[in-house]
Fold this protein.
Amino acid sequence: MKKLSTAVLLLGTILVAAQEQEEKGKQIEDIVIVGNRSVKRTKLETPVPVDVINIDKIQRSSPQMTAQDLLNYVVPSFNSVRQSASDGTEHIDPVSLRGMGPDQVLVLLNGKRRHTTSLVNYQNTVGNGSVGTDLSTIPIIAIEKIEVLRDGAAAQYGSDAIAGVINIILKKNPGASASLTYGLSGRNDGETYQAGVNYGASLGKNDGFINLSLQLSHRGKTTRTQNHDLDIFGKNFAYEFADNPDEAREQDDLMLKKEGLTRDDFNFQIGDAQIRQGQLFFNSEYPLNDNLKFYSFGGFSIKEGKGYGFRRLPSEDFNIVKEIYPYGFQAVLGSQIYDVSYAVGAKYNVNNWLIDLSNTFGSNTFKYNVSNTNNASLGIKSPTSFYAGSHSFLQNTVNLDVAKNIKNFNIAFGGEFRFEQYQIKAGDEASYTQYDINGNVAVDGSQVIGAGGSQSFIGFSPANALKKDRHSTAVYADVSYDLDKKLSIDLAGRFENYSDFGNTLNGKLALRYEFVKNYAVRAAVGTGFRAPSLQQQYFNNSYADISTSGLKIVTKGIFRNDSQAARDLNFDKLKQETSVNASAGFTFKPLNNLFITIDGYWIRVKDRIVITSNITDERLANYGVESGRFFANAIDTETKGIELVATYDWKLGGGNLNINLAGNYTETKITDFHFPEKIDTPRDEYFGPDQINIIETLSPKTKASLGLNYGIGKFNFLVRNTYFGKVIRDGFPFGVVQEFSPKVVTDVSVGYNLTKNINLTVGANNIFDVFPDLQTYKNSYYGVFKYAPVQMGTLGSYFFGRLNFNF
């Protein structure tokens, strides 16, 4: 509690959506949908904290172009950082809430469960070993508002809602709008284009509508590496490992000059991946009569990414074909990500009974293409580009929700049936196969001349390929009681049965009491669960990584928990996570336009599912890898924190000033380790310092934001400072522990209404070009990674211009 109270004094309070004013100066309060069923409450009347983000108003003046980037700067308990050289993870940014994993926050679209991606994060990034939801698949021009429920809600919404719920609500208003954005980093890279158009029209009578959105975007790559001291033509990976570093460097320089090359020709491309994306979304509702209405919403997104792996140097004889790449190469990992979703349903209202029957479908497919590479075992016959396979995830959910309001009571109950399917498909044979000197598939004892598979990203093989599915059935009940907005009591219970993990029963109790007008206390306690995702159960592959010795690139493996390799090492079978959530807080409205909320929280997760460190065991050599990783219920964790939120509207100098101050302090600790009884793997290999670091200290414990938004006449001015607290990165097994000091990022923009319908906004994100601290040499992979992708990331300053049209 001492730490929490200190955090209160240090942080102040947090940014939420700016509030509009009525002519008489009264505040218009947002009605919250998430967290209850058919109970109309404002965000200050909810028994648990909810942020309401007015996307149309905030995004107009903000540099950020996607939902996850915007939330990263306006909700401090939300965290998202772009990753570099991390295979698929640099194409889909992992996001987290309250310091928990990406798979412990549930995403809804129009109140319906949204599918996750098919991608497993396994490159030691934030959210390592988890599967999240790709918020960038939803075009920001299609979004009306976002509700962030910062409290456990598994008893209401089911698995994944341990840290909270993000509900994205699509636009339904008539009329047309459009947006054009251009941006460029302060280093003349990372060029961005975004064009979006939204059109809404009425359908029939009684408030029917259809709303369509189209958005196209492009984000250029960035390079944030440094001139490293790689031993280009020698036999060592870096000069510090050469017998005579100065002589080795001098010899390389002479050879470069002879070939007409410079050291820059061997620099790594390290930074943000290039992303191109096209999205088409719709939202519709058609009332057949006063009692019955049909609705449908969904969309399609295609994303193409281009990232870069580790450079293969001429000295790596076993990994390169010198006849093709005499000076080595840096492979390019291309992605094609297809995301499809749609929901159809009907709402029937009779005698205040609201019946909602719906079907929600979603799928995510991730295809890999590797170019500028080789299969070294084929020699001169090797292709230089490969199709490396794909993985996909499909989810279909049927819901029946029934609710009725009886005086001060609201009763809701219903059921859910969900079907899920996960699939891995193999790539080209040459993308995963090692051949012998005669061009045949290598077997034990074969003579080979090089490493097999496509270098940098080894393709999925038929041994990796699979198609698995499961289903779950759930029933729930909610009861809410409101007494003249003074006392609110919410009680929820949910029973769920999984075809592969059995039964779970969870409950939640939430209370709010207004002891004096505009002053209230609130509290909640509940249990939760998260079933292992199909991806965590069945993802398996071989991948290239730096050896634990740090001197060469080798092949490592990720094995299924039910694989023979897992049985060889005596791993326990996966089981579900269970959790307990508790929160307590205060809400204040001391002035007409001043709102303040303070909430503390505590989350305990038992049997948390993680991916292990690299286990080196002689038995894994039988599977052709140096080391292996496995999914396991390896740890228990405890998370505690405090959040403060305040917003104030002030009429100043003929204009309106909105002040938002916000902050979050969160701390996660591993409270227990679970080692299989018969495993003899050392603890540092089973779950070592690198993995402990990702859970406990790789994300900022403290994050705060102060935003000032001033509108006067045709002008609008935004100044927003975001504070990212310190993080710690452990370079185990061959790096060091490094602390990255706190940083403040400043966003500014100036908007001007050219006409009644056209607005021009120019500004910058990170105008003072703030970066994380430089990495120590040992943590930088021999000088390659100048900056670690932590805190605000490695983009630096970014300048933009945006035209907004409303008709």
